[in-house]
Amino acid sequence: MPSPNYTDVTEFILLGLTSRYELQILFFVVFLIVYVITLVGNVGMIMLISVSPQLQSPMYFFLSHLSFVDVWFSSNVTPKLLENLLSKTKTISYVGCLIQCFFFIALVHVEVYILAVMAFDRFMAICNPLIYGSKMSRTVCIRLISVPYVYGFFISLISTLWTYGLYFCGNFEVNHFYCADPPLIKIACGGIHIKEYTMIVLAGINFTYSLSVVLISYIFIVVAIFRMRSAEGRKKAFSTCGSHLTAVTMFYGTLIFMYLRRPTEESVEQGKMVAVFYTTIIPMLNPMIYSLRNKDVKEAMNKAINRSCFVK
Length: 312
Known about the structure:
By secondary structure, the protein is mainly α. Helix content is 78%, strand content 4%.
């Protein structure tokens, strides 16, 4: 068989969500609104936690980091999406594509492990309330939150090097609105098998391990909640856990659908629609989920609003 005619890549063309001009304008307006709400909601949550004395527990410390990651997760994808919706060229440089891949993979891993750490925190708070304060000290919390960042960026560096190992033969049209591994694998003509295999294996290992921490924590949490004699205590426990479970279900569900399958034309097209949800919608919804269902956050928000009105 003749050897593939590899071509040097300088840029990719992102095909985006649609080629219809009227829909591109509509999508631009919608995603711009979503992005602004995402920034305001998550930055607002970080600021609220930092200034509110009643939100200085480990749970809100981890929540502030979840909001921080969501800001960067959305900012890694949405600005380029907005630019290409109004642009005729819709290109991204090869280096820009690798950088986007690197931060996307890193932030995905950071977020799934922050969600796992938050589940462990709820386990400690509900199942071991008497030693919770001493075991979940500020030092311990900083160590726990450092692991997802270090591990996530390390795994991303390895994965991005394998993406760099892909070779292309003239087809530079990426059927997506950002540089994602599945559509890049689909148009590559060399280095495919090692990249495809490692993507599925790493995604499987990390999603399984982090999700196992969440599930095991919640098995013990449910048992502890049903042993509670106080109805008010059970209600409060379900309230704080419900917000976290909602975030976990949305994030893990969409990522598993995207990355635990072999890239095909059909799966890439479906994944593009699912990617809209976890890159733009979920980061916008997370602050709402944790604020609307959390009494402490709502009280802190009301106090912050009252203080700002009083100052004025």
